[in-house]
Input
Amino acid sequence: MPRAIGLPLHHRIIHLEPMLRIIATRIVQIIVTLWLASTLVFVMIHLSGDPTQGFLPPGVSPELREQMRQKLGLDDPMLQQYLRFIGRGFTGDFGDSWRDGRPALESVLNRLPATLQLTGAALLLAVVTGFGFALLMQRPSRFRQVLALLPSFGQAVPTFWLGAMLMMIFAVRAGWLPSSGNHSAAAIILPALTLALHPASTIARLFATSMEDVTHADYVRTARSKGLSQRAVTTHHIAPNALLPTVAYIGLQAGFLIGGAVVVESLFAWPGVGRLALQSAVQRDLPVVHAFVAVTALGVIGINLLVDLIQVVIDPRLRSHTIQAVANG
Amino acid sequence: MMTLSSHSSSPGVSRDITQPDRREDRRALVNVVIPWRLVPLVLLLTAVSVLPAILSSPTTQSLADRLTPPFGFGGTGLGTDGLGRDLLARIITGTRNSLAISIVAATGASLLGITAGVLAGMLGGWADRIVELLVESVLAIPFITVGLMVTATIGQSTTSMLLLLIGTGWITHAQILRAQARMVSQAEYVIAASAMGASKAHIARRHLVPNLLPISIVVYFQQIGSMLLWSASLTWLGIGAPIEQISLGGIVRDGQDLLYNGWWVSLFAGLAIIYVVTSLNLAADWLRIVIDPVQKGHRPL
Amino acid sequence: MSTRRSFVASSLAVAAVPLATRAQSATPAADLLPEIVIDLSGEPDNLTPALSYSTRDWSVMHSIYDSLVDFAPDGQILPQAAEVFESDDAITFRVRLRAGMIFHDGSPVTTAAITRNVEHIKSADSQISDLYQVITEVRQIDDLNAEIVCVEPSPWLPSQLVVWGVLLPEGFTDESLASAPIGSGPYILESWEQGSAITLVRNPDYHLGSPKGDPLAERVTYRFVPEAATRVADLTTGLAHLIDAVPKDQLGAVADGGNVAVSSPVLATAFIRIATDAAPFDEPRVCQAVNHAVDVQAIADALVSTEAKRLASVFPDARGLGFDASLSPFAYDPEKAKELLAEAGYADGFVTEAQITATSRTDVLEAVAEQLAAVGIKVNIVTSELATFNQDWSNTDAPALRYASWRPMYDPFTFVNLLVNSEGYLSRYSNPTADELIRSAAIEPATESRDAIYQELGRTLQDQPGFIYLWNLVTNVGVSSQIEGWSPRGDDYVLALRRTQ
Output
């Protein structure tokens, strides 16, 4: 049976195209994603019933509710509301929060830094420990078989449970770290640890696997057969190529991390944007939900663009490798 | 990844690249590796199919017996929860329900994702662009917020959770299969077949499916575990399974307010999640080695 | 109801004399703490007085603002920013403000502040603006004396003024109300970090000895911590000094951490609302049967608090109107329940649904469902998120049963008008006798008589139940051992104030 070897991630094929092409693709993606996300938010909030039920208390008179609906344009024809809504998404004017009257975008941007801090710290921790662990596993050790199981195990631990346990141990019993909030530098340690375990385990597995793959790829064999030293092969061929799928994974995880951070934010009372989004969705605060989804989507696409470019920088020889891989298939 | 330990344990030694040893190497290792990687999952499946028959009902309450400690702490079994229900029975039933939901979700996600991925990879061009855009859009839209909106729209039910899990889970399959399908369809033998007048359907049947099946099965298995974790997170946040559906995430949630008087509720349910997901991951590792002895590349994690 | 006098009498007897003399000594108590941190389970949505609807809103709002009147611990209405607050007919309320009060911006508090409050509330898109429409005029007699004039007797108005009748400064805007409020209350807003904390500093000009209490600390930080276990951890580790909403099963952890767990009944009622407009609950015997079928006290003791007592109707305790100590709650009697069901034609029971929000006490509803199952009523529990739940109050397609609670119940006016009155926006109950009682209580000026009318309503609600009556809610607050003399309020606002009575 013919074999498909080596470098199949679609990112690598994107890299065959010039950087400008990458950027253009991402711009198209921004437009489509914003449109899709806005439509999704619009449809869901309107399908779920009268949005005023979310932010007006239940005892409000039907007349007042009606007045509010008119004020917010909720009685306009759906198409008109939809076009206005989509237009807002693209111009960045999301309007004021229905709940507290503050500009929606400002509320989201106010809360974004805390989430970026948390996810950034978690990602850094995950990258360092993940790569570190994978590299460590390359060395011979008697406990390799057992140690190699750790990432499988780490991937299985639910964040909400881990967070509660870490809080019990390190904040309540030991008293070493603050149990919640973001008012001291040490306060980020427990939430970041909690959030980092899963991506760290995944990076460790992925990187270790990629290293194995690359070690046996034809071009590495070719390099070796040319008489290059093991060190040269590792630094010039194995490591950069093994890095690629992992870097791609990190880019893909950015959106999930921000979404998944909401559990950790709730548990540790971390004032991030995830909690705001959850609360706003509960209260059907359409402008804030819209602003949140748009900002996050833009952020994730931005990160992915960055990842694309990084990948090209890491390995400009991708083109030849891919061709080689295909030719060998 | 640990299957290749014999290669990399001696990084200083350059291997003889002409020796076609990898297949034999793997096979030898597979034989060693098969039993223990599957043991946790087999034990788990046995437990969830046998134990419910002999355990007490997971729903029978007894306020007088609430928060009875587990065996070894003055009580029996794994103790009881805040409504006096038997925790072991609840964890077993919860495991079964959570597994069932995850399997359904993973199945739905694979069917959707494989279809999208294969279409994109085979047809290329516009189909490929559209699938790529969809995949990246879903990746860019935050999952939890969407989850809440789905719940608000169609109510808190197993259906809404499944919709959400499938709606976000299919992209994993689509991404991988898209790249794989494209590689296969660009391979020389396929191009040759195509040049000789083979139809697209024929190529798909003869060349694509045999090539893509192994990777799909591995991804599928691995996704069951992550579906279980996601559904547990949603339930923990109060937007997942309805309360009458016993689930592992729900038991941890119940135990969150009992950490002082009934630490065992949250602790054991959390350990159960870890056990279930680890055993699924190990089984997926095993499958990858067995099904996919030569094809390298994607290690969906 | 010997403990309750009319607010007219109490205002003269208690407020005018002793408070006035204490207010002159503006030196803070010696044991003023430098800083306390309060963990609330949620962040205020809004500090705009007209748009505040929850305890978390009110905890911060009433730290910053003063109301004309406040509830005393025994439920009486006492003057607060007012020195005198009285009325003979519940149409004209005479107010005399304390002399010398100033707002946080230094401007004097005059009767114009009352006018501004009324205008603000009446013009807002708020639940309370409907009720405020009874006020036709605020007559400013001079800087300190005014009359609030209503179109008809409105004996329920003072209890609304406790919550919403806050004094507003000149020149406020919608923006300043929402995020930079200036009041005349015990604390001054220093900062509001969205999602994280609100910091207040003590108002050095605040009058001491009022019924609301005196400041506990120079600086107060409210933090927003949604998880109960995290709040307890914060208290134990010293990060917080006061935490709200401690679950019953975590009270021991508070005590173990060397702090004090305070449990105290609040003026709030927990219930399962029955939709009596459709079969099978259109038959009163079925509604009585479900009340007999549930061992409410056992559930309360196990899951809520030993301070939670089974209620005979919707009125929680003697601090509020309508409570009748002589009316006994339904007895737990499954056999009787089965008999009643058989008489009503449901000997084999039936299947129904109960709705609850995912964030409230689902375990309580599960326990109730189990006991209803024992008499043949199979209850399927439906969890909704809050907006859907609120949308379904009067929806005839929604589940017949719904678990909820209501606060404050000092004056049951709002509750009975919304949920019991057949015309109520949230009602699926219809009983001409009850409607008539509700109507007459709304315009009866004498407090004693209103109390008697609501007690009569309580008996009516027991004969023809519209609810499974559960218990009075209980607030469980964790208090740091560093704080002395703090006690919870009957309306559950968590204020950094120490009551002096």
